[in-house]
């Protein structure tokens, strides 16, 4: 008898003996025919019968426990198949615009990328988001408190700090007015204790947004706080394939735990064609 079966047997025989004692106390006349008492089993045949029943019950109990993971796996395959699927490696990729680019270039989702060989092996990745690559670069980012160094913005009179993003076109002769991007996607890169706090400030505490040609611009383009939106929470932003019967919130939790950097993007909505007189450089003030 294996050790695991022995533990099942000992549990079953202890249970039968306890129940036999309780049965003998509750039904003394019937227990007398079986020669059961509260302390022992006087009939050796009854004792052997109980031991045989305990052995059979032990085998059945072990079989049920062995098959329990298979039952759970089968249920998960039907209800939540993504829980059993392997999670691939994930990373954030930066695309660099070519020097001669004069307009946007779309990089569709599921574009295959290859890494540099690692011990002779090449890792293959696929993009999950469609990326619109603009000939635009973020040259500088800074955050300062009061007194605010920013162009005039009546909607931001009560602001406690200002975040400044300095953007520029990478191709000579190209301006923001010519490009007219409908939105700009920004990624917060840095130490976790800093970028998550900054993300909260941008998404939850922005009172107004100003697009200007430097601090001295007296006619900035003012955008409402709703022009900034988080990225990664929509069903079209999934990193992992999910079946329709799965709860959408579970996907978000899974992706946050395995790759929280996915949620460090945000979009600036410029679809209102607000860049009418913008040059080759532009500052965004939050």
Distance between the termini: 73 Å
Largest sheet: 5 strands, antiparallel
What is the ordering of alpha helices and beta strands?
Answer: HHHEEEEEEHEHEEEHEE
Low-confidence blocks of residues:
none
Structural class: alpha+beta
Discrete helix count: 6
* Percent of sequence in beta strands: 15-25%
Indicate how many domains the architecture comprises. Answer: 2
The residue fraction in helices comes out at 25-40%
User: Which radius of gyration do the C-alpha atoms yield?
Assistant: 34 Å
Q: Round the mean pLDDT to the nearest integer and report it.
A: 81
Question: What strand order characterises the main sheet?
Answer: 5-6-12-8-9
Please provide the count of β strands.
Answer: 12
**Global morphology:** elongated
């Amino acid at each position: 008898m294996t050790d695991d079966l022995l533990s099942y047997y000992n549990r079953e025989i202890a249970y039968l003996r306890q129940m036999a004692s309780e049965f003998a106390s509750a039904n003394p006349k019937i227990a007398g025919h079986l020669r059961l008492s509260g302390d022992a089993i006087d009939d050796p045949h009854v004792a052997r019968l109980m031991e045989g029943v305990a052995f059979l019950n032990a085998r059945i109990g072990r079989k049920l426990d062995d098959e329990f993971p298979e039952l759970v796996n089968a249920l998960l395959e039907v209800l939540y198949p993504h829980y059993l699927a392997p999670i691939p490696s994930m990373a954030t990729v930066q695309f660099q615009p070519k020097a001669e680019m004069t307009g946007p270039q779309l990089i569709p989702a599921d574009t295959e990328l290859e890494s540099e060989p690692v011990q002779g092996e090449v890792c293959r990745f696929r993009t999950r988001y469609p990326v619109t690559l603009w000939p635009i670069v973020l040259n500088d980012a800074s955050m300062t408190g009061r007194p605010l160094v920013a162009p005039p913005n009546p909607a931001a009179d009560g602001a406690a700090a200002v975040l400044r993003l300095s953007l520029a076109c990478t191709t000579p002769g190209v301006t923001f007015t010519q490009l007219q991007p409908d939105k700009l996607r920004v990624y917060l890169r840095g130490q976790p204790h800093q970028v998550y706090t900054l993300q909260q400030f941008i998404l939850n505490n922005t009172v107004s947004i100003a697009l200007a040609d430097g601090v001295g611009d007296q006619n900035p383009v003012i955008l409402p706080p709703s022009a900034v939106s988080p990225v990664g929470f929509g069903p079209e932003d999934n990193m992992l394939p999910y079946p329709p019967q799965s709860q959408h919130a579970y996907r978000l939790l899974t992706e946050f735990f395995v790759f929280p950097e996915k949620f460090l993007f945000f979009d600036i909505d410029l679809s209102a064609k607000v860049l009418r007189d913008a040059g080759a450089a532009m500052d965004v003030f939050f």
